[in-house]
Amino acid sequence: MRIMSKKLRDSARGESCTLNIAGICTYDDSTVVLCHLPDESHGMGRKSDDIVAAFGCHACHDAIDGRAGHLSPEDREYYARRGMVRTWRRWIERGLVKVPA
Predict the structure, then answer these.
(1) Closest Cα to residue 56, out of 85, 91, 24, 20?
(2) How far apart are CA 72 and CA 47, in angstroms?
(3) 25 vs 43: CA distance, rounded Å
(4) Span 62-90, pLDDT tens digits
(5) What pLDDT digit, counting tens, does each position of 11-61 carry?
(6) Measured between alpha carbons, how far is 72 from 62 in angstroms, rounded to an integer?
(7) Which residue from 4, 19, 22 is spatially nearest to 58, judged by alpha carbons?
(8) Residue 11: what are its φ and ψ, rounded to 5°?
(9) Which residues, including other chains, have CB under 8 Å from residue 36's CB and lie 6 or more apart?
């Protein structure tokens, strides 16, 4: 079952980059999109679920996807997971994701 949500994808509009890759991030909110991160739900021609994602500016998105920036595997994993948790926190604050008490 693929987890997809137009509201989560659209929520990146106007947000700040949560990936914030040192030396790469442009801090340009106008280029921020929901960046899907690698996990077991993705495959050839298939993006990860929408909950396996982070808000990313164009430069950080390119670095996470391996198109630019040349991050080590360890750095890529660190920034991806940190960005994902930061994004989840914003979704929870905005009421897009609910966590039962």
Answers:
(1) 20
(2) 22
(3) 27
(4) 999 999 978 999 999 999 999 999 999 99
(5) 999 999 999 999 999 999 999 999 999 876 655 566 888 999 999 999 999
(6) 14
(7) 19
(8) -65, -15
(9) 42, 47, 48, 49, 50, 52, 53
pTM for the model:
0.90
Phi-psi region of 38 (alpha: psi -120 to 50; beta: other; left: phi over 0): beta
What's the alpha-carbon Rg for the chain, to the nearest Å? 13
In Å, what is the CA distance from 48 to each residue of 14, 30, 43, 44? Answer: 22, 23, 8, 10
Instruction: Tell me which amino acid residue 10 is.
Output: D
Helices (H) and strands (E) in the chain, counts: 3, 2
> Is 32 within 8 Å of 64 (Cβ atoms)?
no
